[in-house]
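Example record for the data management plan.
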Amino acid sequence: MKMMLAADFPDLSAVQERLAVALLHAPRPLSPRDGYDRLADDFDLTRDQLRRENEAGEKVWHILVRAAYKSLKDLKYAPPPPPFGKWRLNEAGRAYAEKVEKHFSAPAGSSDL
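Corresponding structural encoding:
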């Protein structure tokens, strides 16, 4: 799936990392709606960005966040979501999110990713 997004949206890898950390700290599996909202806050998206739609009438932000969760599943960091529509991490995904979170809090210039 090739996605062409506006330059003012965060890139897919950044959304994937933030989603993993959000799922790591969620007390229970997240609904897609909760994921969209939490990450929109994390990235300080504007109302215009949140309302923007593609040619098919789908919200661009929702497409990007769903693609980030799909990436986590493709990397085997998230299981198929039972019950339907709930997002969570598996053990490998939690380890990935912890590593990403450490990277976010590391001093500038240091990296172990």
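Summary line stored alongside the record: The longest helix spans residues 60-74.
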